[in-house]
Amino acid sequence: MPDAPSLILPTVIGHRGAARHAPENTLAGLRKAAEQGAPWVEFDVMLTADGTAVLNHDETLARTTGLDRPMAEVSYAELAGLDAGSWFAAAFAEEPVPTLEEALGCLGALGLGANVEIKPTAGRETETARVAARILQRAWPAGLPAPLVSSFKRQSLAAMQQAAPELARGLLAEELPEDWREAVATLGCATVHLWRKTLTREAVETVKAAGFGLAVYTVNDPREAVTFRSWGADSIITDDPPAILAALGETPPAG
């Protein structure tokens, strides 16, 4: 089994852009994260009914667009006309659901690194990873550090490993799985990503002692962020980049 691609995690990653300050998984959210000083962002990628890779988290579009239909049944043409910003605030009205390619272009313009989470709808675990891999290989902005690709779905990570072995991979889990060592070895992962609510110091120390990067999601309490970093966590994924940057002594630029 080849070694996992090398990776240096940033201390803070903006969750779904900067989800406390702008609509999640939108270009406005990516811009807000950059404005607030986040060096990287995290966002979710899934496929429309006709196979276009777009940024979205939920299986349905109800929460962020008002369209109460599954993403897996909505074509890109239908999706392109939806408003993914008004639910958050009127100032973001008419903000679209972006394609992965549009998001990568935005990252390049902003100089943002990214943790790309493969978030497939049921039954499309392999397909979603393969489509994302092709786009990342073709359109990742020159000059940015290579992306980290993570997923809860091991099938998606396996497909990414096969399609784009040069990209670092991260295993997402709510808590450290009993078989995590076997999983990260088989999938060639560089990082493990664990949920703040179930995180223990022992889990952090175990992962770090084995030589893997450790990211914690989704941490919005500055005190928690300080604690997790003191335990050895490499990266804090947060909806509130400026608060966490300040808490960790990496205050974002003023203005």
Order of strands, widest sheet = 1-2-6-7-8-9-10-11
Low-pLDDT sequence parts: none
C-alpha-based Rg, rounded:
17 Å
CATH class: Alpha Beta
The structural domain count equals 1
The topology string of helices and strands comes to EHEEEHEHHEHEHEHEHEHEH
Fraction of helical residues: 25-40%
Q: Report the average pLDDT across residues.
A: 95
Named CATH architecture: Alpha-Beta Barrel
User: Which percent band covers the strand fraction?
Assistant: 15-25%
Quote the distance from N terminus to C terminus: 48 Å
Can you tag this structure with a few keywords?
11 strands, TIM Barrel, globular, alpha/beta
Any overview of this molecule?
- By secondary structure, the protein is an alpha/beta fold.
- It has one domain (12-247): Phosphatidylinositol (PI) phosphodiesterase (TIM Barrel, Alpha-Beta Barrel), CATH 3.20.20.
- Helices cover 34% and strands 20% of the residues.
- It has helices at residues 27-35, 62-65, 76-79, 100-110, 125-139, 154-163, 180-187, 201-209, 222-231, 241-247; strands spanning 12-15, 40-47, 53-55, 60-61, 67-70, 113-118, 148-151, 168-173, 191-195, 213-217, 235-238.
- The longest helix has 15 residues, at 125-139.
- The chain is globular and about 50 Å long.
- The mean pLDDT is 95.
Gist?
This protein has helices at 27-35, 62-65, 76-79, 100-110, 125-139, 154-163, 180-187, 201-209, 222-231, 241-247, and strands at residues 12-15, 40-47, 53-55, 60-61, 67-70, 113-118, 148-151, 168-173, 191-195, 213-217, 235-238. The protein is an alpha/beta fold. It has a single domain, classed as Alpha-Beta Barrel (TIM Barrel).
